[in-house]
Amino acid sequence: MTVHGVPDKFGRALAALFLTGCSGPPGPVLGGESPTATPTPGRTEAAHPSAPAPVTDLLITAASIGLRDASGTTLSTFDYFQPAGELVAGLSTAFGSAPTSEHFEGGSEVPPGTNYIWGDILPTGSESPTPWDGDFVLVDGVPGGTSPHEPNTWVKVSSSAVNGVQISTVDGIAVGDDAAEIAARHPDTARPQGSRRDIFVGLVPLPPLDSLSELTFSVWLIAADPLGPITEFRSPSPNWGV
């Protein structure tokens, strides 16, 4: 028995006194009713919102970038006409890190802009329109374009994964897949280009523009060796039918 609020040595003495003085059966309670213990309400934990599911893969198409979880559920989608800052924020969350940003001055056919790079920074290929490459590059051109023919941004993918997040495009195609096998599935849009092979997949039709009527965006697959793997892909890639 413990007597609260009394120093320990006095508590033991009082406890002994109570035990010797109350060794018989308990006396009746006034009113004829036994005391009933009042339950102490337990502490209720406040409900916490569940953490969002982690992004496990990116699906890149000519129309959008989809961020998906392990079940294949699309958590969020970004298009190429949104402000670049929104895509940078979403991709940084997906990859779990901020990008390296590199400004470029542009040239005769390429406007100035900024490359946002996740993963490794890679040597620039001879066919690259910008001076900085990487595993995953979001290119923000300046000035921004207008929908639906001039996207604000486009992406260049040179790896099948960044920070553990898988990256693929139409039909699950990813960097490293066999180019000849993919070309056989897309004979109408596969063609040699110098020493490399280009394949265009996932075509999205666009409304006519001035005198141009057969306009599309697609995902441009590139194989540095026609008999080797896909080494990179870019999206959206414009095809004005000329």
3D architecture notes:
There is one protein chain. The protein has 242 residues and is α+β, with helices and mostly antiparallel strands. The chain is built from three helices and 13 strands. The protein has helices at 8-21, 84-95, 179-185; strands at residues 57-60, 64-68, 74-79, 100-104, 113-122, 133-141, 153-157, 161-162, 165-168, 190-193, 196-206, 215-223, 232-239. Strand 2 and strand 3 (74-79) form a beta hairpin. The radius of gyration is 34 Å and the shape is globular. The model is unreliable at 1-35 (pLDDT under 50).
CATH topology: protein yfey like fold
Whole-number tally of structural domains: 1
Outline type: globular
Helix content: 10-25%
Structural class, judged by helices and strands? alpha+beta
Strand content: 25-35%
Q: What is the N-to-C order of secondary-structure elements (H for helix, E for strand)?
A: HEEEHEEEEEEHEEEE
Give the uncertain stretches in residue-range form.
1-35
Distance between the termini: 95 Å
Task: Pick out its properties.
single chain; 242 residues; alpha+beta; protein yfey like fold; 8-stranded antiparallel β-sheet; 5-stranded mixed β-sheet; 34% strand
